[in-house]
Design a protein that fits this description.
Layout (H helix, E strand, L loop, with lengths): L2 H6 L5 H10 L3 H10 L2 E2 L14 E2 L5 E6 L8 H13 L4 E4 L6 H11 L4 E3 L1 H13 L7 H14 L3 E4 L5 H10 L8 H13 L4 H4 L1 H11 L2 E4 L14 H19 L4 E5 L5 H14 L5 E4 L11 H15 L3 E3 L12 H21 L3 H15 L3 H7 L3 H10 L16 H12 L2
Parallel strand pairs: 3-4, 3-10, 4-5, 5-6, 6-7, 7-8, 8-9, 9-10
Antiparallel strand pairs: 1-2
Helix pairs in contact: 4-5, 4-15, 6-7, 7-11, 8-12, 13-14, 14-15, 15-16, 16-17, 17-18
Length: 430
């Protein structure tokens, strides 16, 4: 029984109750939004002890953290530390994107240690197993893909990215449009390679009903992936991207008919002036399903600082209606992220989400900023640190910046504007 089916029956589950309390919304209102597909709660019944998280319309914008090994770097302890740090600094979900080492064992450990929902991209494991066992990705069999999906669902994965919209028609459109960057989605590229070699339709599209059966059995939320997302500003909002979104909208309605929870993944590299159009397009074509965006990244020239590029795009996307922001680290496009990269990426994306929440009228978000202003006015440093998005860094900077003057910091010292005007008014009233 999925959260959506329970909601359709008029049942408010314990997960709905937790989310409603956390978001300060009526439980019945939340249930109705789950029925309509505008909110999802990724919570696989096999993931014991997971903290339920609501994603979607009028809820606080959520943040996802990607971790995982590569073929060049396999260190389970480091990945578990990334998980720990990402939770410490406030991520809402985590995705294991491991492509190196014992992928199955790594995922099991991440699920076991994670108190928050865990996502995966099953085609990664299926493709890599095909290379290891069959000596070629193109020799992967349809059964290989679904065996991995079934296994991961049984292990407790809460949501999976599945690139069901990369159809033969979409690939042909991609071929004709001559993109600058081609395909930048790893999962999308795996499927395209398989489709071209075998001359067959995307198995995740052709056998979508089978996928729905697995998702329904374990209540795995489908994150319908953007295998044709733009990897360059020059490719943003082109025909292959839009074609894929149209297909995902159709698949969304099929999933809803079976009681399966769905969210939609979106671009990618998008100029500032196209972000709003992309969000509105998804909301229109996919009937209001939660929108999960990678960034968007608003420029292509910021290697080493792509967490900032991501935050700029994420704030605009969130303000326009995106519901779920996937972080980007400073090392994006350059290397596998370190623990510190993960920390920086999560915080930058949380800032973006918070800024968008304020713009969307979220009362709790605004109140936190209001309380920070009050703390600054009264020089209550402990309260400022408590309210900050990264208290440990705020405390370190405060300790480093103590002034010889009472209350103030070394930025302004005795010329602190707040203190001087405050003191002037107090002295004038005596």
């Amino acid at each position: 029984m999925t959260q959506k089916i329970e909601a359709q029956k008029g049942i408010i589950t314990k997960e709905m109750e937790v989310v409603a309390k956390e978001e300060e919304v009526p439980s019945e209102w939340l249930r109705e939004k789950i029925v309509s597909g505008r909110i999802v709660i990724p919570a696989n019944r096999n993931h014991r002890g997971v903290k339920p998280v609501g994603i979607g319309e009028r809820l606080r914008i959520k943040v996802n953290t990607n971790i995982g090994t590569s073929s060049d770097h396999v260190d389970l302890e480091e990945e578990l530390r990334k998980l720990e740090v990402s939770i410490e600094v406030g991520t809402d979900t985590v995705m294991d994107l491991s492509t190196g080492g014992d992928i199955d064992a790594i995922r099991k450990e991440i699920i076991r240690h994670s108190s928050i929902p865990v996502g995966t991209v099953p085609i990664y494991e299926a493709a890599i197993e095909a290379v290891r066992r069959r000596k070629a990705l193109a020799k992967m069999e349809v059964e290989d893909i679904f065996e991995v999906i079934e296994r991961q669902a049984e292990e407790g994965v809460d949501f999976i990215t599945v690139h069901c919209g990369v159809t033969r028609n979409a690939v042909e459109r991609l071929r004709r449009c001559r993109r600058l960057m081609g395909v930048v989605s790893r999962g999308g590229s795996f499927l395209i390679e398989w489709m071209i070699y075998n001359g067959q339709e995307n198995p995740l599209y052709e056998h979508f009903d089978r996928l729905l059966g697995i998702a329904k059995e374990h209540d795995v939320t489908l994150s319908l992936g953007d295998g044709l997302r733009p990897g360059s500003l020059a490719d943003a909002t082109d025909r292959p991207q839009v074609e894929e979104t149209i297909v995902l909208g159709e698949l969304t309605e099929r999933a809803w008919a079976e009681g399966v929870q769905v969210m939609i993944e979106g671009p990618g590299h998008v100029p500032l002036d196209q972000i709003e159009a992309n969000v509105l397009l998804e909301k229109r074509l996919c009937k209001g399903a939660p929108f999960y965006v990678l960034g968007p990244l608003v420029t292509d020239i910021s290697p080493g600082y792509d967490h900032i590029t991501c935050a700029i795009g994420g704030a605009i996307a969130g303000k326009t209606g995106a519901d779920f922001l996937c972080y980007v680290t400073p090392s994006e496009h350059l290397k596998l992220p370190s623990v510190e990269d993960v920390r920086e990426g999560v915080i930058a994306t949380r800032i973006a989400g918070h800024a968008a929440d304020i713009a969307r009228g979220n009362r709790r978000a605004f109140q936190r900023d209001f309380e920070m202003s009050k703390a600054r006015k009264s020089f209550d440093w402990e309260r400022q640190i408590e309210l900050s998005i990264d208290p440990s860094k705020a405390r370190r900077y405060h300790e480093e910046g103590r002034s010889g003057e009472k209350d103030v910091c070394t930025m302004c010292g005795e010329f602190c504007a707040i203190k001087r005007v405050k003191d002037f008014f107090e002295n004038a009233s005596e």
